[in-house]
Amino acid sequence: MEESGADPAAVKGLGISGQMMGAVMLDADGVPLRRAILWNDGRTTEAC
């Protein structure tokens, strides 16, 4: 809260999420190094 400068009284909730079995490599500027296919890719739904 201190670093962001947000008013703690204005916070109504928190959202926490996690990514399982996937990694997206980033460069020093936070830009992905390449496209990543993650576990939730649904392109094979019909075949499955």
State the main characteristics:
single chain; 48 residues; little secondary structure; 0% helix; 0% strand; flat
Radius of gyration: 17 Å
Question: How many beta strands in the DSSP annotation?
Answer: 0
Shape verdict: flat
Helix content: under 10%
Strand share of the residues?
under 5%
The major β-sheet equals: none
Question: Could you say which structural class the secondary elements and strand pairing correspond to?
Answer: little secondary structure
Uncertain stretches: none
First-last Cα distance:
45 Å
Helix tally equals 0
Overall pLDDT metric = 87
Write the layout of secondary structure elements.
Layout (H helix, E strand, L loop, with lengths): L48
In short:
The chain has no helices and no strands. The chain is mostly loops and 48 residues long.
Give an overview in words:
By secondary structure, the protein is low in regular secondary structure. The chain has a domain at 21-48. The protein has no helix or strand.
